[in-house]
Design brief:
The protein has 488 residues and is of the alpha/beta class. It folds into 2 domains: 267 residues, Aldehyde Dehydrogenase, Chain A, domain 1, CATH 3.40.605; 190 residues, Aldehyde Dehydrogenase, Chain A, domain 2 (3-Layer(aba) Sandwich). It contains 14 helices and 22 strands. It has a 7-stranded mixed beta sheet, with helices on both faces. The chain has a 6-stranded mixed beta sheet with strand order 9-8-7-10-11-21, with helices on both faces. Helix 3 packs across helix 4 and helix 4 runs parallel beside helix 5. The longest helix has 19 residues. The termini are far apart. InterPro entries: Ald_DH/histidinol_DH (IPR016161), Ald_DH_C (IPR016163), Ald_DH_CS_GLU (IPR029510), Ald_DH_N (IPR016162), Aldehyde_DH_dom (IPR015590). GO terms for molecular function: oxidoreductase activity, acting on the aldehyde or oxo group of donors, NAD or NADP as acceptor. Belongs to the aldehyde dehydrogenase family.
């Protein structure tokens, strides 16, 4: 196997506050690591409460100034569109940073950069099209509604798609006229810092998009608690999301939560089995399975079970593995902590009585053993009450559960605390739509899992979260409605 291309990453990256690249007030730094090797990659400031206060104060001042919230909508649109173009112009550098920081294959890193640019393009086109309504009352009165910004929005994103998810929240929040303070995950902060710099180049006023790096329990908590933050967007685990929601509730601050998933993909005998195999392969290899909406439960009709398992085994036998810069199909998990978690769940599955069709352990090849690589693992003989069928593993692990009737499939699919996404594969569109109406999930994919794009609202039912990102729905998510009643 050839060595990855030589890459150069600056040793240190600063935060972006009030239009300036700055270190942490404490002078402390955090080290990020390359998941492909476990070796140190770069350093970022260890931001804490003082840095968050500086960032939020700067954002509040920038929001209140006429340069942004009172700027004409088409002028905001031009700045956001320029930011989208700058992301595309910088795609190679950003993809390299994303790949080295997160471990994902470079082609996936490039797609994430392109998707981040698309968010700014899409919402730039909406800036001057945000409309209210006229409410007829009587001959002496009329009422109108307007959508207005909150002010400072705190955005906390996880490590699995750092640039994509930063853009997903920041673009609609800025479109409405908010200012944003972005806190990336401590494992993957590099592209967020780069985004903050490009925002200034695009013409966003200093302070409108600040980036504070640091630990969740320090910088993240300070951001959620800050009195000038008027809305919070959090993407991450249910456990942390619950803490964020409690803090926000104490402050009477609205919060959007995009949390975990244990999504089901329901396969009927008349399905396009080539599409099914491709879907499972994508679920297990894309970002090493570290995707909240991944279809990690495969519900297969008993009549199709053997065919589906054979196709999955054949597909997975062709998977290439390696450091992200080599652009394999499967890269490493994000960290030693995540590797231990995934391997722990594989052990749990075995102890619970599930059988492995493929995988089941860590890669031990000489050029992979230093990184956090785990084999794609498929479990059969899984019952719905097993932990591996109910708890989010967040790795390349899929559980196969058989069913015989539509009602049984629905009972299994809806039988977890999560409800982020679901899939149905069948040529019977009537059956698919009937199931879609009864599935407890924020998104349902029919005959192609994870279809859609920036335009399609995304969010969960139950423990998978509150609110919606993406599409026009995000405009409502990041704005508050004002009703004005006029006596004529």
């Amino acid at each position: 196997m050839s060595p990855p291309p030589r890459t150069v990453v600056p040793d240190r990256h600063s935060m972006i506050i009030a239009g300036r690249a700055v270190p942490a007030w404490s002078g402390e730094w955090l080290t990020t690591y390359d998941p492909s090797t476990g070796e140190p990659l770069a350093e970022v400031p260890r931001g804490a409460a003082a840095d968050v206060d500086a960032a939020v104060t700067s954002a509040h001042q920038a929001y209140r100034a006429p340069e942004w919230s009172r700027r004409k909508p088409h002028e905001r649109a031009r700045a956001l569109a320029r930011l989208g173009r700058l992301l595309l112009d910088d795609v190679d550098q950003l993809a390299m940073l994303e790949t080295l920081d997160s471990g994902k294959p470079i082609s996936q890193g490039k797609r994430d950069v392109e998707l981040a640019a698309r968010y700014f393009e899409y919402y730039a086109g909406i800036c001057d099209k945000i409309e209210g309504s006229h409410l007829p009352l009587d001959a002496e009165h009329m009422a109108v509604t307007t959508k207005e910004p909150y002010g400072v929005v705190g955005v906390i994103v996880p490590w699995n798609a750092p640039l994509n998810q930063a853009a997903r929240a920041a673009a609609p929040a800025l479109t409405v006229g908010n200012a944003v303070v972005l806190k990336p995950a401590e494992e993957t902060p590099l592209t967020a810092v780069r985004l903050g710099k490009l925002a200034l180049e695009a013409g966003l006023p200093p302070g409108i998009l600040n980036v504070v790096t640091g630990l969740g329990e320090e910088a993240g908590q300070a951001l959620v608690e800050h009195p000038l933050v008027r809305r919070i967007s959090f993407t991450g685990s249910v456990e942390t999301g619950r803490l964020v929601a409690k803090t926000a509730a104490d402050r009477i601050v609205p919060v959007g939560l995009e949390l975990g998933g244990k999504s089901a993909n329901i396969i009927f005998p008349d399905a396009d089995m080539d599409a099914v195999a491709a879907s499972v392969l994508r679920t297990m290899t894309h970002n090493a399975g570290q995707i909240c909406s991944a279809a990690t439960r495969l519900l297969v009709h008993a009549d199709a079970l053997d065919d589906v398992l054979d196709r999955i085994a054949t597909a997975l036998a062709k998977v290439t593995v390696g450091p992200g810069m080599r652009d394999p199909m499967l890269g490493p998990l994000i960290s030693q902590t995540q590797l231990d978690r995934v391997l722990g769940y594989i052990d749990i599955g075995t102890q619970e009585g599930a059988a492995t069709v493929t995988g089941g352990s860590r890669y031990t090849d000489d050029d992979l053993v230093r990184g956090y690589f785990v084999q794609p693992t498929v479990f059969t003989d899984v019952s719905p009450n097993m932990r591996i069928a109910n708890e989010e593993i967040f790795g390349p692990v899929v559980c196969v559960l058989p069913f015989t009737t539509d009602d049984e499939a629905l009972e299994i699919a809806n039988g977890t605390d999560y409800g982020l996404a679901a899939g149905v594969y069948t040529r019977d569109i009537g059956r698919a739509l009937a199931l879609s109406r009864r599935l407890e999930a924020g998104q349902v994919f029919i005959n192609e899992y994870q279809a859609g794009g920036v335009e399609t609202p995304f969010g969960g039912y139950k423990h998978s979260g509150w609110g919606r990102e993406k599409g026009l729905a995000a405009i409502d998510h990041y704005s508050q409605l004002k009703t004005t009643i006029i006596r004529l």
